[in-house]
Structures are given as structure tokens and as C-alpha cells.
């Protein structure tokens, strides 16, 4: 197997916990539209783009508005979400995430963000994570949503490394599939039942080491 020279990280649920803010905003939109949106429903939105998430929400509510209305609804949800995440700070970085990224940098391994979020820069700036990334690919740079591999192949290109030398860190099935389709190894963060297609599944980045990561080179 190729040596690991770069790591690409999803943002939501991997480095920071913005999922709760997404859920609050989607739930608020559903209630305004007259139906319930549960935490179980929200699981279907993990790793999915904003408009695709809206389509799922509208399907749950049994609604089929025109495209102009859909754009207005997506903008409303995003405005609420931005309002919520504007108060984020470094305390909302998930346990072990910053320490692991710092250890990657110390070992000369490149680091990139690969996120569908169009608000990634706001989150990275508010939490102080921006300087740690050699490349940042977010929803403003991509045309295709995960499970399309575009976000990760763009990341590898911007880092100047071959895809087979990259490892992706993801918490969603769509992200695992995107990494696989990009020809990259993948570490799933969460449940083995959900993320079983990853090369390795861990509960969080807390306590995870570069040496354990490099063990994937043998697999």
C-alpha cells in the first residue's frame, strides 16, 4: 500500500459538533412548515449537502414546493444555522481533534478539510482551526455532494499528493463512500454498525495516534 502522506477531515461531527445546530435549524423549519422532524430523521442528513438535505426534509413532510420556494427555505434554514454557529469558539472543538492534527503536522503529514459545509470558514475561524490546514475544500468549491468523491479528489489535488496516499476521517456513510470512490483509505468516527465500510472505525479522535494511523499502511 502507498505510504500515508495526507489526511483529509470532514468538519461536522469529526472536528466540531455543529450537528446539533443543523438539527435545531432543520427542526425549526419543519415546525414552521407544519410537521415534526425527529433526531432519527436527522440521521439521514449526515454528510449530505444543504439542498439534498432540504429534499429529504420535504419528503418527510410530504411537501413538493417549486424550486424558487425551495431556495427560499434553504436560505432561511441557513440564516438560522449561521446565527447559531456565530457564537462558536475553541471550546467546541471535539476532544482529541486539535491534538491529533497538531501531531500530524509535527510528523510532516499534510492536512486538508473536505466538507460539504458552505459555512466552513466561519466555523474554522471562530474555533481557531484555520491555520492548521494546508488546503480547505468546502461547499463553496464543489459542484457535487458526497457520496460523490469530488470534495476529496480536489483536496488531494490542492495538497499535491496522490489519492492513494490520503486517509479520510468521516462520521457519515456518504463520506465513507466518497472516500472509497476517491481511492482513499478511510477512518470512520462513530458506530461500526453504520461505518463498517471504513478501513478502521474509532469512537472519537481522543487518544488516537499517528502511529495507529500509519498502521493502515500495512492493510
UniProtKB/TrEMBL annotation:
Query: Per its UniProt record, what CDD domains does this chain match?
Result: HAD_BPGM (cd02598)
Q: Which GO terms describe its molecular function?
A: beta-phosphoglucomutase activity
The record's listing under SUPFAM superfamilies reads: HAD-like
Keywords assigned by UniProt, alphabetized: Carbohydrate metabolism, Isomerase, Magnesium, Metal-binding, Phosphoprotein
Q: Which InterPro entries does the record match to this protein?
A: B-phosphoglucomutase_hydrolase, Beta-PGM, Beta-PGM-like, HAD-like_sf, HAD-SF_hydro_IA, HAD_sf, PGP-like_dom2
Enzymatic reactions:
beta-D-glucose 1-phosphate = beta-D-glucose 6-phosphate
Q: Output this protein's name.
A: Beta-phosphoglucomutase
Q: Which species is the source of this protein?
A: Paenibacillus lactis
